[in-house]
Design goal:
transmembrane helix; transport; xenobiotic transmembrane transporter activity; mainly alpha; globular; cell membrane
């Protein structure tokens, strides 16, 4: 089976490795940094981990809004690049910047001026709330820089320019890690700042990343390096066409992120130990999912390029290759997660109860990896590449709000089950989503040329 999957298509695998590997590596570095952040903060104690975890739920909401806006933009950038329409590529970037920065500004205001309100949603213990407030008041200033970076990175990905963002991400992460060491613990003669130091390090790193991205686009004279008028000369008809496709993606991510935030609300009501457990787990899980994030991004770009060039049958054939590859890889990673769960949690300086809970939740996560990874490839990669965004919005939000959220409240707050069982119920939505996503993929209804 494996030999049959990988043979006779050099074009496919050349593009997959050229696009997917740099994106996966970039995600790996980012996830490694998140893991280092949690590792360093865990030295301060469970309260600090829980506080930063609660505070970062606001960034998580922003992140998904930006992902919706930017990945929706990526649909157009991939198809426009497929037909080499650079003029409209610049306009797509302009719309994405307007939406992303507007969202970033709103979230900045909430983080800087209303941090206590945010923390009261995701935590109940006063010490946890205090730590989260300190973190939010600093990190809120980074959100607009993050928004700009998202827009440029996703448009560049759609054009197959993935190495420049990867290198810049590595540089910014190096800065973040070094400043974490200096500011959290008070090295090199600097006063120890704790969680405020972690937030300051991230703020500096994201600012540098944003500036380097914009500078690189113009210094290297990449195709989207346009004048202000070229980027923001956007007609009403163009915006309407954009929103018709991207609107459901943004709605999808917003509704899905609110559902996930509701999970966090449940975890917060289950106590500080559970909050610390899920903060630790989500960081570790990202590390194991980086390959699938890279594959889904590569899938969206490769299929989008082919659809934009009117090669719909080739796009459909490639979609089936992605499904088979994902199944094989996900089984190996699933076994790796389950097998290493006991060791990974020992790397963190948290309480024994948090370590035990985290190990059990990682085993649950490992069991669901094949379902979770396939949904990621199908929803973010395959179906969105052809602009089938309304359908993906229905199955994604339906899975969260009709299955995940009710089961989270029932198992966590009514039945008061242990966190590993609550987590298993929450992840059960992946199984139901997969049924509809697979059926839609094989129907070919997603193969739409938008440009």
């Amino acid at each position: 089976m494996v030999r049959d999957i990988i043979k006779n298509d050099k074009h496919f695998y050349t593009k997959l490795f050229a696009i997917g590997v740099p994106i996966a590596f970039q995600n790996l570095i980012t996830s490694s940094l998140n893991m280092i952040d949690v590792f360093m903060i865990s030295s301060i104690g469970d309260t600090a981990v829980a506080g930063v975890g609660g505070a970062n739920k606001l960034y998580f909401l922003l992140n998904l809004f930006l992902f919706g806006t930017s990945s929706g933009t990526g649909i157009f950038s991939a198809q426009y690049w497929g037909k080499r329409d650079v003029k409209n590529l610049k306009k797509i970037l302009g719309i994405c910047l307007i939406l992303s920065v507007s969202g970033g500004a709103l979230f900045s205001i909430i983080a800087i001026f209303f941090p206590k309100f945010v923390m009261n949603v995701f935590a109940t213990e006063e010490p946890v709330i205090r730590e989260g407030i300190k973190y939010l008041r600093v990190i809120g200033f980074s959100y607009c820089f993050t928004a700009i970076s998202f827009a440029y990175i996703f448009v560049l990905r759609g054009m197959n320019f993935v190495k420049v963002p990867m290198v810049i991400t590595i540089v910014s992460i190096g800065i973040n890690t070094f400043l974490n060491w200096v500011l959290i613990f008070g090295n090199l003669g600097v006063e120890a700042m704790g969680v405020s130091g972690a937030a300051t390090a991230t703020l500096v790193a994201r600012t540098v990343e944003c500036c380097l991205l914009i500078t690189s686009v113009y210094v290297l004279k990449l195709p989207i390096a346009g004048k202000f008028k070229e980027i923001f000369d956007i007609s009403k008809a163009f915006v309407s066409k954009y929103l018709h496709t991207v609107g459901p993606v943004v709605g999808n991510e917003v509704m899905w992120s609110l559902g996930v935030a509701t999970y966090s609300f449940v975890y917060g009501r289950m106590g500080e130990t559970v909050m610390a457990t899920m903060t630790l787990n989500q960081t570790i899980e990202q590390l194991f999912m980086v390959l699938f994030f890279g594959m889904s991004s590569a899938c969206a770009v490769i299929l989008g390029n082919e659809i934009g060039d009117n090669n719909t049958e080739r796009a459909y054939r490639y979609s089936k290759k992605f499904i088979k590859l994902t199944i094989i890889i996900s089984i190996f990673i699933s076994l790796a997660v389950i097998g290493s769960s006991g060791y990974v949690v020992t790397l963190f300086n948290v309480s024994e109860m948090v370590k035990m809970n985290s190990r059990l939740c990682l085993i649950v996560f490992g069991i669901y990896i094949p379902f979770k990874s396939l949904n990621l490839i199908l929803i973010v990669g395959v179906l969105r590449s052809g602009g089938d965004t309304k359908f993906t919005m229905m199955i994604d939000t339906g899975g969260v709000w009709l299955i995940g959220v009710p089961l989270a409240f029932l198992s966590g707050l009514v039945l008061k089950l242990d966190i590993q069982y609550v987590y298993a119920f929450v992840l059960s939505e992946e199984f139901f989503k997969l049924i509809f996503a697979m059926k839609r993929t094989y129907s070919k209804k997603w193969l739409n040329n938008l440009v």
